[in-house]
Amino acid sequence: MANVNLAVIYYSSTGTNYQLAQWAEEGAKAAGAEVKVLKVPELAPEAAIAGNPAWKAHVEATKDVPEVTLADLEWADAIIFSIPTRFGNVPGQVKQFLDTTGGLWFHGKLANKVVSAMTSAQNAHGGQEQTILQLYTTMYHWGAIVAAPGYTDPVIFGAGGNPYGTSVTVDQNGKMVEDVSGAVKHQAKRTVTVAEWVKKGNQ
Question: 95, 106, 152, 198: which has the fewest C-beta neighbours closer than 10 Å?
Answer without folding.
Answer: 106
